[in-house]
Amino acid sequence: MVGMENTQIPKLTPKEVPLEAGNEQVSESVLIPKIGPKTDSVKKLQKRFPKWVLVACGALLLFLFYLGLSFFNIYRNAKVLGAEITNLSTEAKNQNLPGVKSQLTKVDSALIKLKGSLALVGWMKIVPYYGGFVSDVQHATNAGTHLIDATEVFLVAIEPYADIIGFGGGAEENAGDAAKTTEERLDFLVKSIPDLIPRADEISQKVLEVQKEIAEIDPERYPEKLGSKEVRAPLKEALAIFDEVAYFAINGKPLLEVSPYLLGIDSPRTYLVLFQNDKELRPTGGFMTAYSIMKVTKGKFEPVSSNDIYNLDSTYRPTVDAPEAFIKYLKGPYVASQKMRLRDMNWSPDFAESMKLFADEAESVGIRNIDGIIAVDTQLLVYLLNVLGPIGVSGYGNFSNEIVAECNCPQVIHELESFADIEGPIVWSENEPGKIVFAPPNYDNRKKIIGPLMNSILSNAFGQPKEKLPDLFEAAFKSLREKHVLFYLFEAEKQAAVESFEIAGRIQDFEGDYLHINDANLGGRKSNLYVTQEVSQEISVASDGSVEKTLTITYKNPAPYDGWLNSVLPNYVRVYVPKGSELVSSEGLEEKFDVYEEFGKSVFAGYFQLRPQGVAKVTFKYKLPFKAKSGLSLLIQKQPGTGSPLYTISMGKNEEEFFLTTDKELKLR
User: Fold this and answer.
1) 118 contact partners, CB below 8 Å, separation of at least 6
2) Which of 225, 256, 287 is the last residue of a domain?
3) Where do transmembrane segments lie in this chain (predicted)?
């Protein structure tokens, strides 16, 4: 290190460069250029995009960020709501009333958050096309709020009776309810009906609010599919289900109000119960094969007497002119006398009209001092036996829903058809009153079976443990909804109540398109046991809005002729359509009849025969008396006593397919 101190370091002297004239550069020692206030690239950008464009782009980016954040928030809240609804559904399926009440509160909270996030994009309702979807979502959430309110009221109302509809954790259960049988729980329910009526009014008002919001949602604006996932069809189905529930919530109140009357709470009631054989189909549900007088006191049903319809007819003096169809196709007693028999008086498709005639005429043979008429068919028995299981009837054996080979049908149907198998009427002696000159096989059993069978069903039902009550309610409700049980009451106010609940079998007035197909078996034995029906409607709308429809009804009887139940079906068909409809053509009928009007409808009628293992196809082409402006509303009314015929409705590119289990209203576009 010491040696280095003497080391000489050479001096570096910068080279002198002479300055030229005009050259302001002082020294080359500053090698870094001076940076000016603006770069060339910014200058170029300003030249290409004015300042306002840059501001607009910035605003757009902020707007897109706002939208993205808003929709992400909506998505997140919707996902939470969906999860809570799933949990609510699980609690409902588990029939856990406390769980449902708790989960409903969580759904309400999640819905409030979703509505808050939707408020940030509410202005988008004015945006063409997309605004419709935003509007639909807002209507749906508003409907959800009203629906939660209605459900909360409903849960409070039904809590004391929760076990009746299958829910656990109700007030009665928690209190150690001592009612162990169906009869005891029904007694409790009957006594509590007056307390339910105010709640029903509150629920119906809230459901009306839901209905108003739901009515604003248009499923037709949605695509049929997103990728492989169905969109439009499930939405339509959900809206249809709600409409049905809403209808009962709104129209059930009048029925609830007259329930004390119907159930004999204020005073005992007496009803004529008619048994309609739907396997021999007639306009109101089936051939009237037998009847019973039933007394109801404080909700308890007691059969008083039962008899065969032919016995009632034997004492009746006919006075009413028979329809031409009876004289021409049914023949039998109408060859000798062209006056209607009591057993055939359900010829009108409107149950109330048929029963008014029947009640007026039956009064002359001792059917009086009754409060109304209840008609039931064999399907009610099938539904009840599904719950009760096999039952025994003293002196007649056991009845069940087991499918038997003799008819490939439930055993109870086979046995009842055996008892009902009568060839011709009972002939009574003119000289010796009460003496039978001729009686078909089984006529006596047919008369006697009704009372014991009813007693067995009622005693079995009332004796069931209360756990079976929800299933019994479901069987009864299903029978009512599918028109296997119909009511006709003599007091106008009570009749209006059953009509509002659509259990009166009325032909309805309707503003729009309408369809009711009514078939009558005129002497084809019990072949409706095997006959199926399929219906298709092709609707064509012209550019001016005029509508032409092609209605095709396909009847099939796949079973062979057996000489007992199944034979040739002589079928008289009537098709009810909007009044003023113009029939263009009809095919497949052996005989056609002039178009006429009834119940404010135009009626196309005809006759054909369907053979065992055969197919018959009937087609009506007609024009509606009005034009379709923004779509078409269609009401289809089901014939009582029928099963669930398959319907296919096509209009343009849209097609709907469903099984008609009850009356159905469609909105077509």
Assistant:
1) 74, 134, 137, 138, 141
2) 256
3) 52-75
Pair (476, 339) in one structural domain: yes
Residues 123, 213 share a domain: yes
CATH number at residue 361: 3.40.630
Which candidate, 421, 424, 420, places its Cα nearest to that of 450? 420
Number of domains present in the structure of the chain: 3
**Structure tokens belonging to residue 141:** 């959430």
If one counts every other C-beta atom within 10 angstroms of the C-beta of residue 133, the result is 15
**57-91: buried (b, 16+ CB within 10 Å) or exposed (e) per residue?**
eeeeeeeeeeeeebeebbeebbebbeebbeebeeb
Boundary (domain end) residue, out of 256, 288, 317: 256
Q: Do both 296 and 442 map to the same domain? A: yes
CB 313 within 8 A of CB 343: yes
Residues 522 and 579 in one domain: yes
Spatial distance between the Cα atoms of 319 and 219, rounded to a whole number of angstroms: 55
Neighbours of 125 (CB within 10 A): 15
Which domain does 473 fall in, by range? 269-500
Residue 576 falls inside a structural domain: yes
Cα Rg of the chain (Å, integer): 38
Same domain for 312 and 239?
no
420-454 per-position pLDDT tens digit: 665 555 565 666 655 666 666 555 555 567 778 88
Q: What is the pLDDT of residues 2-49, one digit of tens each?
A: 444 454 555 555 555 555 555 455 445 555 555 555 556 555 555 566
Residue 598 lies in a domain: yes
Distance CA 359, CA 367 (A): 8
End-to-end C-alpha distance for the chain, whole angstroms: 104
Q: What is the dihedral of CA 243, 248, 253, 258, to 10 degrees?
A: 150
Q: Are residues 294 and 443 in the same domain?
A: yes
Angle at the Cα of 144 from the Cα atoms of 139 and 149, rounded to 5 degrees: 130
pTM, two decimals, is 0.80
**Is 506 inside any structural domain?**
no
Q: What kind and span of H or E run contains 635?
A: strand 632-637
Enter the tokens of residue 306: 């039962």
